[in-house]
Amino acid sequence: MGDGVGAHEGIDYRRAAFVAAYSNVRALPASTMPEVAFLGRSNVGKSSLLNALFSRKALAKVSSKPGKTATINFFEADGVAFVDLPGYGFAKVSNAERAAYAALISGYFEDERSHNLAVQLVDIRRDPSPLDVESVEALGELGIPFVIALTKADKLSRSKALSQRARVARLLELEPERVIVTSAEKGDGMRELRRAIAEATT
Question: How far is residue 55 from each of residues 20, 41, 47, 114, measured CA to CA in Å?
Answer without folding.
Answer: 20, 23, 12, 25
